[in-house]
Amino acid sequence: MKEHTTGSSVKLDKPFGVDYDLVQGIMKDPQVHTIRLASSMRGHYKDAASLEALIAQSDPVHYEVFEMKIPQEVGQLQFCISKTYPGTVGGECFMTKGHYHAVPGTAEIYLCLRGEGYMLMKLPAGESAYEKFLPGRMCYVPPFWGHRTVNTGDEPLISFCVYPGEAGHNYGDIEKERFPLRVFKRGGKVEIVPAKAG
Ligand code: PAN
Ligand code: ZN
Question: Among the atoms of ligand 1, which is closest to the Cα of residue 82?
Fold first, then answer.
């Protein structure tokens, strides 16, 4: 992962505005810009050998997140642009790592601006769900549901996300449990399959 803090001097204790480039799917002056490469996705794809080949070849960007440094406090709202690139690893579509919120009873809204794909979701007890991402479609992730974005298209999948200030992120639990569903694209056909069968 590459993460850097930009020089944005916006003060967050007073009302402020943020500019977006909705064509490129970027926040123009973010305070935090996170870039996750293929090499930060080890352990997430079914075909580990294909991932290693991709890392050796070019280690492409999987996704980027653009954020402001909103205090992690009750009453605040976190928001970001999440941009997942197109591509596959052994036929499995590029995706985000996925997480639960560290404060698990906090929901999230994803409004899809561009691209297409799915939000994969799961509860700690194992129940899973998915929602289609298309421009103009919003996905509501209820409290307690882990969530991961998957790009099934040929262009970046871009969403604007909003969630409670205190939510935080818990990557460890879902990494151990694994998502019950995987999304593949072979010969242009998208398939959502149980992870065991994938
Ligand atoms: C999003 C995600 C973003 C990147 O802002 O953080 O899509 O995915 P990972 O955090 O799983 O790497 C969000 O759900 N925030 O809570
Ligand atoms: Zn989240």
Answer: 7
